[in-house]
Write a structure and sequence with these properties.
The strands form two sheets. A four-stranded antiparallel sheet has the order 2-3-1-4, covered by helices on one side. It has a two-stranded parallel sheet with strand order 5-6. By secondary structure, the chain is of the alpha+beta class. Helix content is about 35%, strand content about 25%.
Amino acid sequence: GAVKWNFEMKGVITVPRAGLSDDELFEKAIEAGAEDVDTEGELVEIRTEPQQLHTVAEELTKMGLQPENAQLTMVPKTTVKVSGKDAGSLLRLIEALEDHDDVQNVYANFDMSMEEMAAIMEA
């Protein structure tokens, strides 16, 4: 719990784009009660207050969007840019933590390019 202050509990819903523009997706999500929308990539990430997770997911379903995943998670308040040798060490640490039997979830606040992450994972 030493770094818990750097994270906040949020509801996170992922939905496929379904041929909709960023503006259309944002409009539907806000209308459903979401507080933030990330339209990067093929899956759209919609964030809600924790107590609104299921309500927003149901509203999105009524609007014709099929949530692929809806869960409570810890979202970082700020992120730290990581690259090079530090990036490799960080990913190995996270992998070791995830593999540990006593660990249920691992949350991190790093910012790393997808290209660098893929290169590290291939090595």
